[in-house]
Amino acid sequence: MLSLIYARSLDYCIGKAGQVPWHLPDEFAHFKRTTRHHVVIMGRRTYEDHDTLLPDRVNIVVTTALAYRAAEGVLLAHSFEEALALARGADREIFVVGGVRLFERSFPLAQRVYETVVHTTVPDGDTFVPRFDFSGFRQEILERHPTDSRHAFSFEVSSYERVE
Ligand SMILES: NC(=O)c1ccc[n+]([C@@H]2O[C@H](COP(=O)([O-])OP(=O)(O)OC[C@H]3O[C@@H](n4cnc5c(N)ncnc54)[C@H](OP(=O)(O)O)[C@@H]3O)[C@@H](O)[C@H]2O)c1
Prior knowledge:
The protein is 21% helix and 32% strand.
């Protein structure tokens, strides 16, 4: 099964200056919990945001650079198709975790999308997720998280399951 997972702002921003534009520990915990023991496919820029192996999962980084060097244990692919072939070989659930091109490319194949909406806007954001058409999907709200001392913004986590 192939899923997408991301967190976006109210204005669909997912990134700013190579990083995620907020620090929300419980949202990151949801990402880790959901993807643990599975396969994560990510673009080279998303990988460089953390620059290490995400533990307890198969990491695949997509880049056109044939001589790219990533951390030990990270698998490299040079196209989305190659990443998928590698991922399918691992016989686990596959998560596309960003960025934009890989989300666009994988959405038509996705059975499920985990979307977190962060209740803020990012006026100087530079990376935006597409406004996916979720008709044909069933939405389930998994969590409504309030603002608190560790979370400057509230957020809502949904899963969209393809039903058609
Ligand atoms: N909020 C979230 O949930 C979330 C999730 C993920 C990322 N982000 C943020 O989004 C930003 C990064 O996303 P991005 O869209 O700019 O970049 P990205 O997709 O992570 O990386 C782009 C690079 O990936 C490689 N790539 C992507 N698709 C490819 C393909 N089909 N074939 C070969 N190579 C391919 C290319 O690498 P080369 O240039 O090396 O060829 C491309 O330049 C960062 O700010 C990150 O923090 C946020």
